[in-house]
Amino acid sequence: MAKHYLWALGEGIKGCKPGDLIAGRYLVKRDRLLVDTQPEQLPEMPEEIPSVVTPYLRLFAYQLHVPQVYGLVSSQRSKLSGDIWLLENGPILKVTESLMPELADSWKGATAMRQLNWLWQISQLWQPFIAQGVASTLLTPELQRVEGQLVRFLEFQPDRKPPNLSQLGKLWQQWLEDAHPAIANFLRQLCQQMVAGQVRNGEQLMGQLDKALAKCGRFYDRHVEIATGTDVGRARAHNEDACYPPSGTVFSGNPGSSACAIVCDGIGGQDGGEIASAEAIAVLRDKLDQMPLHQANWDPLSLTSKLERAACAANDKIAGRNDSEHRQGRQRMGTTLVMALAHIHELYVAHVGDSRAYWITRTGCYQVTLDDDVASREVRLGYSLYRDALEQVAAGALIQALGITSSNTLHPTVQRFPVDEDCVLLLCSDGLSDKDRVEECWEAEILPILDGSIGVAAARDRLIEIANTRNGHDNVTVALIHCQAHLRDEGNTVTELSIAPLDTPPEPIIDPDELPTDLTVPTIIGNGNSPTQLLQPEKSKSSFSLLLKIVFLLGLGGVFSYFFIPPVGRAIDTAGESIFGERGFIKRGNTPEKIVESVPPPVKSLETGSFIEIKSSAGGELGKEGESLDLRVAIGGLTVKGTVPAGSVLQVTNKQLTPQGNWLELKVCSIPEIVRSNSPKPESNKDFSTVSKPALNPSPAVATPTPSPSPVVKPTVEVEIAQLQAGEIGWIQEQAAVSKVVSNLVLNPSKQGKCVASDSNPNAN
């Protein structure tokens, strides 16, 4: 069995030295670097998940870059001075039993495309790391390691207070001297924009780097080869899998709509699963044919959105057929999906379900998709370590697949990877990926493709044979995509790859406090094609006009103060009573006054720092369904982080302008007591034996498939959305929030909750 290397955190490891055997199992090889001598045994698991390891769990989706928590060595078991947390999948070179090189040390001498790629990956992680309070990791060079073109992190550095992109720009400025000459001017300008605060968020930073990567990518010759195959396997009577290009096909050509591979694993038994997988491929191919994929209109965000919508269209086609044929329960058909598209200098991977994509380079094999199953969901919610979650009942039950429910509850994942060297992307159903067969065989069976000693067709056939002989319990489908990228005219790269400075990013959002206070100077914003202009007052304006304006504003201020500032209103009422009598000019009858409830004016815009409260239902019921906000994980993202019930108070901690409109970062200050008491946090050691089903189009939760010649229906369950707790943050479009909230609140400290002024970290979870 291969050695399992781990990285150690905690007080207990500080007193250990090389050669020590911790808890009779973990051998210390170097400072904090251990080997598990009993990897077949489940490591010790915590009874509760402490906050120090929660970010690792919630960032489980970023497993390409982030190490995962392997297990615990408690001080009671080890007899050491403190607990030890063990991290797996860290940047450790197994051959030399040492850490991978730091990014800063590998920077000098790297190609322009590679340097940009490293920075692009860091920018992609900025917002997720900010949300989990570990963005300081991106400012700590010794924690940033590289393995080929991949950036990997040794461990997390918790934030004492949230860092900003200005600090990141200052760090990158230290690397400018060794930047590739082709991009040195661009990086210098980008760092200046970051330090000056012109680049306001990770999305803007990625956008700038995307432009540079696209320009760099034009100087590479690229070629794609694809081979696909599917087989019924040794235990099934029929094949529910499907692939594109059709099984047995070998494609050779350039990146574009034809350089696409799709693998689907059908759900629903005979006359169900194979129909769903075939329907999905037909719809996806039709959608791809309608996408104009050429360099002139390259837009990564737009293409990502189109691939998500294509997956949803396939979902709705299958779901509609289920409904029209009155399929219920286990008769409802569905399919998993993993799809890859080579476009210009990038690979795009779309995913739903538990079919997988693996990225193979000369430095390693990496699983790039995360299974949409119960075990992964428990980890991402921070409830359980992955190895512990896998041991639970129904751990492999799917939480989403194409065709089971409406697209309203579907969340396809689309990732993209800039490619600066030869690589192979493997797509496969679980007939191959089960029991870690890919991790076992990639080096012997797939890696030789990169040096030309084996072709993609021969490797495909060999992988299907391995799936049948070493697994054999299921249908198996494989697609291999060999991407070749070679820099042209390598002897003259400095001149050829010179990149002009990019355009200045969009104007930063104007803070109301920064607006001019001189009311005689109106500000007129240009139409986008001309610069912003400030029109100066005409000299012919008379002083009388100015006096009228001042009188009008004073009167308006008095009216506002009377109605909205209670002490001023009471003072004016008292003065009126002393002059006109207690009742003033209005005579009151004997009939009681009709009490008119004050209705707040519609909210049009929410500013940074303001407090808002989610409106209660008409009946005053707190937490009523529909009267809540769903907060997203990131700007523009589809993934819902959690929901916040009616009556909750939130604070606007950030506001960003995107082409799709304003996005607000909201922090949950407090939630109503009645809601809190009825919404306990699930326990970390959760029982998966009972799995919820969708309300509208119910589908069964079935046990994980086992080797059997009879058809096995894959389990499917509904995605659960957790309720956010006080102190957590998320993003929402301003347009989606304003109709559900009231602002201009006067709050007592209890309602401010986690947002009181003494809270030094607005992004703390």
Provide the fold topology.
Layout lengths: L3 E6 L11 E2 L3 E5 L2 E4 L17 H5 L9 E6 L1 H4 L5 E5 L3 E2 L4 E2 L3 H5 L4 H20 L12 E4 L2 E4 L11 H9 L10 H12 L6 H16 L2 E12 L9 E4 L5 E4 L6 E8 L5 H17 L10 H25 L9 E2 L1 E7 L2 E7 L3 E6 L2 E4 L6 H7 L5 H4 L23 E6 L4 E6 L1 H4 L3 H9 L10 H16 L4 E12 L5 H4 L26 E2 L8 E2 L8 H22 L1 H15 L30 E4 L13 E5 L7 E6 L3 E10 L2 E10 L2 H6 L50 E5 H5 L2 E2 L6 H4 L13
Antiparallel strand pairs: 1-4, 1-6, 2-3, 3-4, 5-6, 7-8, 9-10, 11-13, 11-22, 12-14, 14-15, 14-16, 16-17, 17-20, 18-19, 18-21, 21-22, 23-24, 25-28, 25-31, 26-27, 28-29, 29-30
Overall description:
It is built from 20 helices and 31 strands. The protein is α+β, with helices and mostly antiparallel strands. The strands form 8 sheets. Strands 2-3-4-1-6-5 form a 6-stranded antiparallel beta sheet. The protein is globular. The chain starts with a strand and ends in a 13-residue tail after the last helix.
**Helix fraction bin:** 25-40%
Strand content: 15-25%
- Can you count the beta strands? 31
Oligomer classification: single chain
Structural category: alpha+beta
Q: Could you list the spans in which at least 5 consecutive residues all have pLDDT below 50? A: 491-498, 504-542, 577-602, 618-626, 677-719, 758-765
**Strands of the largest sheet, in order across it?**
2-3-4-1-6-5
Q: How many helices in DSSP terms?
A: 20
- How far is the first residue's CA from the last residue's CA? 40 Å
Q: Cα-atom Rg, whole angstroms?
A: 30 Å
Indicate the mean pLDDT. 81
The best one-word shape is globular
